[in-house]
């Protein structure tokens, strides 16, 4: 159905500034508050809703408005404009992960882990509130400032693409991420973990495990083993590969016990692999006084302090390193790996 561009129209207290995008059900506009001059994203449903569905939609919106979490796009308002439901939510100026990382691009392991952790935190929070997202995919992963990630379009069952309600064409964007049990109409919490597993797979190697026509993709979700990640990304540590493949188990019981457990296992696997030359629990090698040790100079002339700067994605690793060195009596000065010119490390080095 072709929809008129609503730019310029007023919905609630918002004036529609420009379209942001469109999905299977709705057009999304950037809106400006007429009094506060603040921005919001307005999701305007394409079809009007029948009375009996409206009640269900309202009760779902009433649940969503309570989902308040640093990694969740917040629902601000709900209005019905001449029979058309409109969901008003936080505007994410960074756009979607899909727009930011074009199809086929790969993210580093550190960035992937940082993003997956944030999405898992949002999903775990929703699961604890008894909400299944049902539509985890890069189009619903929005970028805030820095490396901050926001997940949108939570569990409005009536709005979530579902095989019962939609043609496979409308489902096209969602199908590559849909768990086998969800394809059968029985979504569970672990269905979100499966979708997040597909996202992780795609970010790590640039390709989703199952591609092809809608029918081929659905068949593969149910019957085919995902091609080993390391066929496409040979340097990927085997521990990381097995964590992702476990999230993609056909049987939801065989996945991780929770989406948070998946994210933690992924983080552990990626940092273990970075450190496999070292002891499991310690980042640094023991600082022994041995003349043949490369660390000998450490104990002779232990530096007064060590400057440590790491990107936010490596926070966990940096924290362990810091704790380790501190335990050995080496004072740490923490810096931030921020962009732009001279940072504290320069001034420190000059001292
Ligand atoms: P589906 O219909 O399967 O959910 P979708 O997520 O692409 O697919 P919509 O949720 O309708 O569809 O969103 C359409 C587009 O609008 C998104 O792809 C995104 O580019 C943009 N968009 C949605 N929500 C926001 C937001 N809160 N801030 C900024 N842009 C947004
Ligand atoms: Mg969406």
Write a brief structural summary:
By secondary structure, the protein is of the alpha+beta class. The chain has helices at residues 51-64, 97-100, 109-128, 168-171, 180-183, 189-205, 214-223, 229-232, 238-247, 259-274, 296-300, 315-327, 344-350, and strands at residues 10-11, 14-22, 26-33, 39-45, 75-81, 84-89, 141-143, 149-151, 306-310, 332-336.
Can you offer a commentary on this structure?
- With 351 residues, this protein is an alpha+beta fold.
- 36% of the residues lie in helices and 16% in strands.
- The protein contains 13 helices and ten strands.
- It has helices at residues 51-64, 97-100, 109-128, 168-171, 180-183, 189-205, 214-223, 229-232, 238-247, 259-274, 296-300, 315-327, 344-350; strands spanning 10-11, 14-22, 26-33, 39-45, 75-81, 84-89, 141-143, 149-151, 306-310, 332-336.
- Strand 3 (26-33) and strand 4 (39-45) form a beta hairpin.
- Helix 9 (238-247) runs antiparallel to helix 10 (259-274).
- Mean pLDDT is 83; it is low at 275-302 and 337-351.
- Bound molecules: adenosine-5'-triphosphate (ATP) and magnesium ion.
- The site of adenosine-5'-triphosphate has 25 residues, from strand 2, strand 3 and strand 4.
């Amino acid at each position: 159905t072709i929809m008129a561009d609503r730019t310029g129209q007023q919905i609630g207290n918002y004036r529609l500034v420009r379209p942001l995008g469109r999905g299977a059900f709705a057009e999304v506009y950037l809106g400006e508050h007429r009094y506060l001059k603040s921005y919001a994203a307005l999701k305007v449903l394409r079809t009007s809703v029948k009375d009996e569905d409206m009640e269900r939609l309202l009760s779902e919106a009433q649940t969503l408005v309570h989902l308040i979490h640093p990694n969740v796009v917040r629902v601000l308002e709900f209005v019905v404009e001449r029979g058309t439901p409109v969901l008003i939510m936080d505007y994410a100026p960074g756009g979607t992960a899909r727009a930011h990382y074009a199809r086929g691009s790969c993210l580093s392991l550190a960035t992937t882990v940082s993003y997956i952790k944030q999405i898992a935190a949002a999903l775990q929070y929703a699961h604890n509130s008894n909400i299944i997202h049902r539509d985890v995919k890069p189009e619903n992963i929005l970028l805030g400032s820095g490396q901050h990630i926001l997940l949108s379009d939570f569990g409005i069952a009536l709005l979530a693409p579902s095989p019962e309600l939609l043609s496979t064409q409308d489902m096209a964007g969602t199908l590559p991420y849909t768990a086998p049990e969800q394809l059968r109409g029985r979504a569970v919490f672990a269905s979100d973990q499966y979708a997040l597993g597909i996202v992780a797979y795609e970010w790590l190697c640039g390709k989703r495990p199952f591609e092809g026509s809608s029918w081929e993709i659905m068949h593969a979700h149910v019957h085919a083993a995902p091609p080993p990640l390391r066929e496409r990304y040979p340097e990927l540590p085997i521990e990381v590969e097995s964590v992702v493949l476990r999230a993609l188990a056909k049987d939801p019981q065989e996945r991780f016990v929770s989406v948070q457990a998946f994210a933690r296992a992924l983080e552990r696997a990626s940092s273990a692999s970075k450190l496999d030359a070292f002891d499991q629990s310690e980042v640094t090698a023991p600082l022994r006084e041995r003349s043949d040790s490369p660390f000998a100079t450490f104990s002779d002339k232990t530096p007064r302090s060590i400057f440590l700067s790491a990107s936010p994605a490596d926070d966990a690793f940096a924290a362990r390193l810091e704790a380790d060195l501190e335990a050995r009596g080496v004072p740490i000065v923490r810096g931030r790996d921020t962009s732009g010119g001279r940072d504290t490390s320069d001034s420190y080095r000059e001292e």
